[in-house]
Amino acid sequence: MLNKKTAAFVLSKKEFDILSLVEAEKKKLSQRQIAKLTGYSVGTVNTTFSELVEKHFIDGDKISEDGLNELEPYRVRRAVFLAAGFGSRLVPITLNTPKPLIRVHGKMIIESLLDAVVSAGIKEIVLVRGYLSAQFDQLKYKYPDIKFVENPAYNEGNNISSLLAAKNYLENAYILESDIILKNPNLVSKYQYQSNYCGVPCERTDDWCLSVEKGRISGVSVGGTDGFRMVGISYWTEEDGKKLGDCLEKVYKMPGGKERYWDSVPLTYCNKDFNLVVRSCSFEDFTEIDTYNELRAVDGAYNV
Fold it and tell me: Are 220 and 283 contained in the same domain?
């Protein structure tokens, strides 16, 4: 099957998963190791790997130049960080410091995500700022390519205004909440197959819960059962990024639109316009600090 845009073969999901894994690992993997890492059966890995070799996408145990070319249309081009908010549940520390810049064990919360983005070779980094915006300038010392987008409306509603301010940067992009301490940098990878949200499978959660039907995210609720606890890391293809920007603008202009969280746009108001899937992860992959008590529990330096 040919992709008219790239004049290349369109990879199946199995081909993509195995080929991108071979590229990322850069070392010899047994087919049993590949099966364990991808979740496919050994038989499926055996068949798919052989097909990739026949297509000259894998040469021996390594990805070939042709294989790299096949992955190129799936490359993540940019990362958009939402960092404009006040962080009221972390008062008193956020009275003087924006939440993403709070230090945990000596490192700013946002740094683990930024380091993962840089490690993945994502060159374009966009950060939407608002509250105490000048303090984010210090990030330029370590991340000189970062681009700041100002959100003057950050205190007039919820975070829909922040993503709307970055409307022109949503294609082939990660959208990242800036209050996540990332423990597994592989959640931010160089290539993505389709638009998705990271989520942790849960029997019950009091947090934002993604509902999935036939492999597709069908909605979101605050609290739920037999779904996925939403994590603030999502990816948007070129096509979906364009649609997301248009949908954000439409919902923002609705009565009460400024009060919406941006995620409710693709997950509720415009859900039928997107074919979003969950990228499963675990609570071991990240830490979110939402309250001052949680901060004190993670870093004892705040107990004094």
Answer: yes
Whether pTM exceeds 0.85: yes
pLDDT in tens, 178-192: 999 999 999 999 999
Residues paired with 280 in a beta bridge: 199
Pairing of strands 58-59, 62-63: antiparallel
Contact 131, 211 (CB under 8 A): no
Instruction: Tell which residue, 81, 78, 49, has the closest CA to residue 176.
Output: 81
The burial of 220, by beta-carbon neighbours within 10 Å (0-12 exposed, 13-18 middle, 19 or more buried), is given as buried
Q: Which residues, 6+ apart, have CB-to-CB distance to 59 below 8 Å?
A: 53, 67
Are residues 180 and 247 both part of a single domain?
A: yes
Distance of alpha carbon 72 from alpha carbon 70, whole angstroms: 6
Residue 247: both structure tokens together: 């949908």
Is the separation of the CB atoms in 126 and 77 below 8 Å?
A: no
Alpha-carbon gap, residue 296 to 304, rounded angstroms: 9
